[in-house]
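Predict both folds.
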Amino acid sequence: MKLGWFNIISIAVFIFSININAEEISGYDTSETGIRVVKKIFISGNNHTKHKVIINELPFTAGSFVSSQSIKSLSERARENLLNTTLFNYVSVNYWFPNDNDVIFDIKVEERWYIWVFPIFEQEGRNFSDFLRLNDGSYFNYGLYFKHDNLRGRNETLKLRMVTGHKNQLVLGYENPGYNNRSGWGVNLGWLVYDQVPYTTNDDKQVFLKALGEEITRQANVEILYFYRHNLDHRHWLTAQYIDYWIADTLKKIKPDYLPKGSTKSKIIELGYKYQYDTRDSKVYPLEGSLYEAEITRRGIGLLSDYNGFFQGKIITAWHIPLLNRFYGSTQVTLSGIDRKEVPYVFKTGLGYNEYLNGFEFRVIDGSSFSSVQNKLLFELVPRKEKKLTFIPIKQFSKIHYAFYLKLQLDGGYVVNKNKLPGNFMANSLLIGYGVGLDLVTFYDKVLSINYSANNFSEHGIFVHFNLAM
């Protein structure tokens, strides 16, 4: 897949031309047409969250006109939007008609716990199953994590992360997502050191260079983000990032093209844009709705170094459809590509890094472009249940919810690699993964997935994922 300027401009024109607006109804005699006026909106339970944060998520406002037939769907949409802010554990939206012309909405929320300070003990790896395969005792990180969600009650996020172990990392970030039809912004500062890193692939698996206790790679970065959201469902992101890379001579000797120009140091500027149209009922575990996403990034622009970089683009579409009697179906299609046959290893692309197919958890399939189709058929084994834990005194944790889903999955993919290394064999071949699984969906956006999967290369096994949501 080669992204020329014509293709990039075409994608941009297509993105900006999309304008899906909700109908606005005004100027009608409400007593004759079945149109009602939103007379009042009552909000309760938001002890910390500002009213305007909640109002921002509603598909109606006080004084607006709504059809009587749409009130139920608008109420459900309001509830889904509020849950998708990740600010609340529970949301209820009720309404009543005080007369023939008006409607009153009553919104009740139960806020989450917003301040997190806890020690970190985590695995390092592309996914949990691959971590279990690789683990020799050195693939753990430990440290301290501080995060303040909903800072000042305005849905702002402040985070500080300090870890050591498999990697030494320091991250400081702030994000103000803004409001509907208004912009927001964010900034991230990071410092990262590894004493063991992958530097190539063999048998379509990562090969690591280890120098325990000695620095092999180091990077520092500054990222600035700009957000804009309109009509509730349309989101735009602009990002600018500066990254300072350094690698040890030992890594350069065995992998001369790890950084651009065969250097041990490189300063890279990245510029990116992403557009998203999202109507899914849940961002964590969607059962209904659709997602359309397009992203273009320029990695390296010839400033601060003589590396001119490359373009990387990605398109994602997903559909989630309720079927009969607690059955649900979903399909996600992903297309990704760069405008180069080969890039420095630090920018390596393909399936297995950020995206993977079920049944290929252990594999990393390098290539300049790839496509994938992931299909799931879900059965709601245990519908959502709520349980009160009376022995927990903190109300944000004393009430939990959970649901279980059985699933069948069938994935397909293809990776294009015109410079495939001799020891790898999965690129330029049809990839098929399939299997069955059980998902647990519970509060605070947690998803545990246990799958038995196989692929068309006669590999199979049990794979575990956390927070897996397609």
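Second protein follows, with its predicted structure tokens after the sequence.
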Amino acid sequence: MDVPMPNASLLAQGITVTHGRATILDAVDLTAAPGHRVGLIGPNGVGKTTLLRVLAGQLKPDSGTVRLAPASATVGYLAQEPDRRRDELVRAYVARRTGVGAADRELDAATAALAAGDDGADERYSTALDRWMALGAADIDTRTEQVWAELALPERLLDQATTTLSGG
């Protein structure tokens, strides 16, 4: 779970999720106050991913609520990807998985179209730039390094292939 705004709070109350007859989450409550980090630990299949997807707004619970303060705060969710690409460096992985890599490519293509005078290029460029900015592409390396440092991981690992690291 990532609550990117340092003064943001998350309050989940009574989160219940079922799949068929199986209850995956049963009235789960969670509070993440400003500046707090939450670790979610448990064996496979107990609902960790389900809870994270609910908190990020990717999955609607059967009952319960998730509230953010301020309401404009976001919860990011980055799913595990067990089959990693050979020779992809951690920095490139982060850019790809956050959408920044695709946004970079589209902004480059839109810039070239604008320079060539293509029809609709101004709108394409504007849309691409807005998405690039919204994803935080301008400072993704700095933010990645900050998070990496907060996790007490050696910075040298950012320039290492993902296949040399644990999948988790």
